[in-house]
Amino acid sequence: MLNQLTISELAAKLASREVSARAATQSCLDQIARVDGKIHAFISHDAADALAQADAADKEISSGVKKPLLGIPIAVKDVLAVKNQQLNCGSKILGKFISPYDATAIEKLKAAGAIVFGRLNMDEFAMGSSTENSAFGVTRNPWDTSRIPGGSSGGSAAAVAADECIASLGTDTGGSIRQPAALCGCVGLKPTYGRISRYGLVAFASSLDQIGPFTKDVRDSATLLGVLSGVDPRDSTSVPQPVPDYAAALDGNIKGLKLGLPKEYMIGGLDPEVKAAVDAAVKQYEKLGAEIVEISLPHTDYAVATYYIIATAEASANLARFDGIRYGLRVDASDPTELYSQTRGAGFGAEVKRRIILGTYVLSSGYHDAYYLRAQKVRTLIRNDFLKAFEKVDAIVTPTTPTAAFKIGEKSDDPLQMYLSDIFTISCNLAGICGVSIPCGFTNSPKLPIGLQLLGKPFGEETLLKIAHAYEQNASWHKEKPSLA
Amino acid sequence: MAAVEIDVKYVAHLARISLTPDEETKLAAQLGGILGYIEKLKELDITGVEPTAHAVPLVNVTRADEIRPSLPHDDALRNAPAQAGGLFIVPKIVE
Q: What are the angstrom distances between the C-alpha of A145 and each of A90, A156, A221, A484?
């Protein structure tokens, strides 16, 4: 089935004219029709538009045009602007908002020939770890539909795991790509802060947000990263670093590379099956010639608290724009202040309100220094931990999550417990480094995916993906499919 | 991990979010718990530590000061909840 292929497999079949882009796209659409009623990865998708893009791609292919993603169906998290498509961020507050322009990441996908389709479900404004906080309903894990797919990019992970698309885009502010990738059994990459332009991405926490790909293997992740990366004059935080040929670096040779094991990540709440899978992966790395070094990231225990000050503070400012004046939902009132309050009270869901209010509080007069400034200083300590560790090692190996996917509803009434499920992924965003989650095993009963997290140096994606790829070459976890699909 | 008291009504007003009395009660308890957890940052000695605002600091990112195309007027108004004469309509602000 064409929808099960990777980018590189499908690209080869398209180039040799063995299959058409239309057939590949139809295969994804058929899979959506078959399984999405159970999973609900998509908020919406326009089948006719996807097929029209596929026909255009087929025309280009037959006239000999070559582009890295020509004819490849890629679905998008509902937080990125795609011109003339609805954009909701999983929220009611955007109403019937239609994007007037393409995000840079979308422009780049289109320029590379991709068929860009669908709006993938997410926690409202990317705030959450389970995709239970969407105004458009809960997304379910393809491996067990009574469980969460992770979040906030739960739709992006579930759609790739269920073969409803070839690859997808998500965003990661505190783990929102890596955590759902781990829980759904796909490859999820959070690039270094500044690697990919965020123009056209609805901001949650501007000093932490990054766009990244969900794929079925590491090679596809490298391919997409190459397409998406690069400086953009429309995003002043994008960094003018050269973009290497990431896929070319995947040579399987990691002899002599040093991998750090942070002792602070072996916490009490770590599930024994997750620990066993990660231990086995580390042994595998040793066999492949990597040197394993114990390291220390002493401020790990402060990362979640630091994150929930910085991220909520930034969110409270970023989300001020949703006020019912220029776009989206409006609840009418007799004066503007009342209009703002009523609109925001009606339009935002519980988690978004909770975070805006927390963020407003930590920035408010008399509390700014005690909370926000202190958190920014602790952030420096966390970042320094990593920079110091990277003087000794080429990458850091950890579990992506403390447990496999939990049950729908299990943590939804306890925000702090939900926040603590991101304990292994949050530091990466605070430090601004890159990280990837790859499949490294399954729990026994029920059978649920386990993710291995690799963390790399700032702009060290080439080495990071090379290390991830070397493991994948000697594993078959990423090839297993949920029975639902 | 002592819970911290927070005046939710006041902060919600600052954030321009109307809350029901039920939401206020629930949020006060939840935010109290979260802030209690956050208190652990006070354990750390941060004397002399510089704050990090952005992990990859770029400064003075500027471009040439020249006119470039921007969002057309009609596109900017296309998602407006209320508009007339090429303008957004808002409730009366000045009596």
A: 20, 16, 26, 9
Q: Is residue B23 part of a domain?
A: yes
Tens-place pLDDT, residues A216-267: 999 999 999 999 999 999 999 999 999 999 999 999 999 999 999 999 998 7
Is B61 within the bounds of a domain?
A: no
B37-75: pLDDT as tens digits: 999 999 999 999 999 998 887 888 888 899 998 999 999
Query: Residue A315 belongs to what H/E stretch?
Result: helix A303-318
Distance CA A173, CA A152 (A): 9
Cα distance from A205 to chain B (closest Cα, Å)? Answer: 11
Of A253, A177, A242, A250, whose CA–CA distance to A208 is shortest? A177
Residue B67: inside a domain, yes or no? no
* B27 belongs to a structural domain: yes
The domain that contains B34 carries what CATH number? 1.10.20
**H or E, element range at A288:** none
Does the annotation mark A176 as catalytic?
A: yes
**Active-site residue identified among A77, A190, A411, A457:** A77
What are φ and ψ of residue A258, in 5° steps? -105, 130
The count of domains in chain B is 1
Q: Are residues A128 and A362 in contact, defined by beta-carbon separation less than 8 angstroms?
A: no
* Contact between A119 and A85 (Cβ < 8 Å): yes
Give the Cα separation of A149 and A125 in Å (integer): 17
Whether A316 is catalytic = no
What's the ipTM? 0.95
Residue A190 known to be catalytic: no
Residue B38: domain span? 8-42
A301 close contact with B: CB closer than 8 A: yes
User: What kind and span of H or E run contains A266?
Assistant: none
CB contact under 8 A, A302 and B12: no
CA of B47: which chain A residue's CA is closest?
A377
Domain boundaries in chain A?
A: 2-257
Superfamily of domain A2-257: Amidase signature (AS) domain (3.90.1300.10)
